[in-house]
Write a structure and sequence with these properties.
The structure holds two protein chains of two kinds. By secondary structure, chain A is mainly alpha-helical. Helix content of chain A is 72%, strand content 0%. Chain A is globular and about 70 Å long. The chains are: A mainly alpha, B alpha/beta. Chain A: It is found in: Cell membrane.
């Protein structure tokens, strides 16, 4: 509704006739400048990506082409080759990332929905601020917190899981039927990773949920939808691709997170699903950080080869996410 | 399946701002009642109080009573969700759910009311609702395609099908044709005339010819000045309003001597 003030606005005086030629050339110049800026930025990101890929391949080449790495590098088992280590590392990296994603996404979506559709306005902005603050905590602090605060607290919970859900392979105990103590296990690591990726997933999801068209929300309400039904009919389907993207951003961070994993997880090089037993898995990034300082040239090259594997995994994950989003494009609401 | 609505002494607020004041009117069952009036006079605001959609805006509230067959919609213990299941609504801009197929859109309200519905019942409901909305022949071969792929007029008829699939008592339409071309508008108007055999219909329109064509009774809303609350000036049989209204303001508005 127009305020009374608008009625009192003085009549608009027509602008003086613009100086046509000059303004047009400036516009052209600006237009061109912006185009170059945009194209240049796009190219820059491609060039950066390419240079990282080239660096990884070149540096990894000596290790990839070496016949007998096991005799030169201590952490490759006798008679084995690089693949015997990279395989379990890839496995451990993906397992840690997926478990942390599984823990973080439901909570993040819940928080985002609370902020966007349940909380009173003032509380919503305060809560959003707090969640964003979580993102500002350095990962080394998260690592310390995980080791000193979280680990002792969760050990009984992990023991409970082993005792009552040990028949699920993920929750199997060690040879004595126990969860490791101290719990420097993948589950603890994944829990800390989940806290670390929570802010980004929450922030992106919240923005997407807030952009649900009012029209669709009202359509659901007018049909007699409750708040939850409104969310299920209008908000979640609309936010689906956004939440997927958010989860992929979080997954990217979880795949690459180094410090927290290094500080919490007791490493192992097995294809093991045991989340509650120590010395089973290790992630690529933490492995590089742990070994890089003591590595000689060929050892460094081998570590970079594992980094190349991480790079490829991340690319594949993102491609996969794109494919998932694109599959239901017709129904996305973008048309 | 159609009920009368009696509105008594209704004041409608946005926060502290009184948007519409002192509305008194009755809406007859199985008839079309049109609301006309200048922009900002509160027609749509008033319409949205009839299914308690007004209060979804933070701070919005009403005083007074809106009784449907004697039961006050704003009485204590009345659940707004239950009210909206009785009173269907069609919006200014077509708003099918973009993530649902045509058939799912039609069934959206039914899924809310009773979760389980057999496949054959569902098919029957989809066909009945789409047929009533004069859309069946156009979409029967693509029921599983997204509703957002239809033209604007088809989308609006899909929204009408979605609203009547749950067999509401009353159907509210908030300028349902304002985003549509003349042919689609005609299709919707024909549909309104057919639907009044079964439903109580209230339609807001900016188009006075439309009000004259489709409605049995017409209500004229106006406001004295910007910042003043809107008021119901008069409500009468449509031919009376358009030929010999009681109020000078109505006469001025319908003859274009307004403002």
């Amino acid at each position: 509704m127009a305020s009374p003030a608008t009625a009192m606005t003085p009549p608009v005086t027509p602008d003086p006739p613009p100086r046509r030629r000059r303004s047009r050339t400036t516009d052209r110049g600006l237009d061109r400048a912006f185009r170059y800026l945009a194209v240049g930025s796009g190219m820059l990101i491609l060039a950066t990506l390419a240079s990282v890929a080239i660096f990884l391949v070149l540096e990894a080449l000596p290790a990839l082409t070496h016949d007998d790495l096991a005799s030169e590098i201590a952490w490759i088992p006798e008679g084995g080759n690089l693949g015997d280590v990279v395989g379990p590392l890839i496995f451990g990296t993906i397992l840690a990332a997926i478990v942390s994603l599984g823990l973080a996404v439901p909570v993040a979506v819940g928080i985002a929905l609370f902020i966007s559709h349940y909380a009173p306005r003032r509380m919503a902005s305060a809560l959003g601020y707090v969640v964003d603050l979580l993102a500002a905590i350095p990962s080394v602090v998260f690592g310390l917190w995980g080791v000193l605060v979280l680990a002792p607290k969760v050990q009984p919970v992990w023991q409970f899981l082993v005792d009552y859900f040990g028949w699920i392979p993920l929750f199997a105990g060690d040879e004595h039927g126990n969860a490791s103590n101290p719990p420097r296990v993948l589950m603890t690591t994944a829990l800390v990773l989940a806290v670390m990726i929570l802010p980004i997933i929450t922030a992106v999801s919240r923005e997407v949920f807030l952009q649900t068209p009012r029209l669709h929300e009202e359509a659901a309400l007018a049909l007699g939808a409750t708040r939850w039904e409104l969310i299920r009919m209008a908000v979640l389907p609309f936010g689906r691709s956004g939440v997927t993207s958010a989860a992929m951003l979080g997954l990217g961070r979880a795949l690459g997170e180094t410090m927290a994993v290094l500080m919490i997880l007791s490493p192992g090089f097995l294809y093991s699903f045991k989340l509650l037993v120590a010395s089973q898995q290790q992630t690529i990034a933490a492995n590089i950080a742990a070994k890089f300082n003591d590595a000689d040239d060929i050892g460094r090259s081998a570590l970079i080869a594992t980094g190349l594997a991480l790079f490829v995994i991340t690319l594949l994950v993102n491609l996969g996410a794109r494919a998932i989003v694109a599959r239901r494009k017709d129904f996305s609401g973008a048309n | 399946m159609a009920q009368r609505i009696d509105v008594k002494d209704l004041n409608i607020y946005y926060g502290d701002f009184l948007a519409v004041a002192g509305v008194e009117m009755s809406v007859e069952p199985r008839s079309v009642t049109a609301f006309i009036g200048p922009s900002g006079c509160g027609k749509s605001t008033f319409l949205r109080t009839l299914n308690r959609m007004h209060e979804v805006i933070p701070g919005a509230h009403v005083e007074g009573t809106v009784a449907m067959d004697g039961v006050d919609l704003y009485g204590a213990g009345i659940d707004p969700v239950a009210v909206r299941r009785q009173v269907g609504m069609v919006f200014q801009r077509p708003n099918p759910f973009p993530t649902m197929s045509i058939a799912e859109n039609v069934l959206a309200g039914i899924k809310l009311n009773n979760k389980r519905i057999s496949k054959s019942d569902a098919d029957e409901t989809v066909e009945r609702a789409l047929t009533s909305a004069n859309l069946w022949n156009e979409v029967k071969d693509r029921l599983n395609r997204p509703g957002s792929g239809l033209s604007g007029g088809q989308q609006q008829r899909l929204c009408i099908a979605r609203a009547i699939a749950v067999k509401p008592q009353v159907l509210l339409m908030d300028e349902p044709c304002s985003a549509l071309d003349p042919i689609s508008t005609l299709a919707i108007e024909d549909l309104v005339s057919e639907l009044k055999a079964d439903y109580t219909i209230v339609i807001v329109t900016h188009n006075m010819q439309q009000a004259a064509r489709v409605s049995d009774r017409t209500a004229f809303f106006n406001l004295k000045a910007t910042g003043q609350p809107g008021r119901l000036v008069e409500i009468d049989d449509t031919p009376t309003i358009f030929s010999s209204p009681r109020e000078q303001a109505t006469e001025d508005y319908i003859s274009g001597r307004f403002g």
